[in-house]
């Protein structure tokens, strides 16, 4: 059963859910599988389909991933205040709200019922030069997963801070060295129904027609 959302509603109201993830309500694995089936319809370079999806439901493993995420987040948050100080007052206010939400997720990442880790086969080393082709064969599918989750009443958040400890997380989960991690998607039912489009800078501030 999916929510009655138009395509534009789905695309503009799929938000990163952090504070409002329901940490107590179990998420059926069948629902996660439905979302991943949708994700597998995303494009990949040369139709390679060289992605892998690690779905983490074991409480101990979730706690392990959460601990590494929190360690990385603590280092990141120490730098965030200095960056935000250079922004406008309006942007600082937005940043403060996001920071509070992010703080909450960092404290509870290991409590989220399902963690989905999107990975891709690479080899021992990343390809040299521009890697757009590599990540373009994984990240659209991860976004499709988030859209499918939203349509099924699930919330998720796009997170990558754990990658500071990619090797350690990979070893804990048994991920082979030639498979690299792209994004971690904590997934749970959400509370509240107030999803709406987020404020963004006007299109014309970033739009370039023909030339810069």
CATH architecture: 3-Layer(aba) Sandwich
Distance between the termini: 45 Å
Strand content: 5-15%
How are the strands of the largest sheet arranged? 1-2-4-3
Give the class from helix and strand content and strand pairing: alpha+beta
Uncertain stretches of 5 or more adjacent residues: none
Query: How much is the average pLDDT?
Result: 92
Oligomer: single chain
Q: What is the number of helices?
A: 7
Fraction of helical residues: 40-55%
Shape: globular
Number of strands: 4
How many domains comprise the coordinates? 1
Q: Using only CA atoms, what is the Rg?
A: 18 Å
The biggest beta sheet reads: 4 strands, antiparallel
CATH class: Alpha Beta
């Amino acid at each position: 059963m999916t929510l009655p959302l138009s395509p534009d509603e789905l695309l503009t109201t799929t938000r990163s859910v952090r504070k409002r993830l329901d940490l107590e309500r179990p998420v059926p694995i069948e629902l996660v599988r439905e979302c991943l089936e949708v994700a597998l319809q995303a494009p990949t370079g040369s139709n390679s389909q060289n992605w892998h999806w690690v779905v983490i439901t074991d409480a101990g493993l979730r706690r392990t991933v959460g601990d590494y995420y929190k360690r990385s987040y603590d280092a990141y948050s120490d730098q965030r205040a200095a960056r935000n100080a250079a922004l406008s007052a309006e942007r600082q206010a937005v940043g403060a709200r996001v920071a509070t939400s992010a703080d909450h997720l960092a404290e509870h990442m290991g409590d989220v019922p399902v963690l989905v880790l999107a990975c891709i086969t690479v080899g021992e080393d990343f390809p040299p030069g521009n890697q757009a082709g590599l990540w373009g064969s994984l990240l659209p599918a991860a976004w499709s997963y988030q859209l499918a989750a939203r349509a099924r009443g699930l919330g998720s958040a796009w997170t990558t801070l754990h990658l500071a400890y990619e090797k350690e997380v990979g070893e804990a989960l048994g991920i082979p060295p030639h498979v690299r991690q792209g994004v971690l998607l904590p997934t749970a039912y959400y509370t509240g129904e107030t999803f709406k489009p987020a404020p963004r800078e006007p299109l014309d501030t970033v739009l370039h027609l023909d030339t810069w």
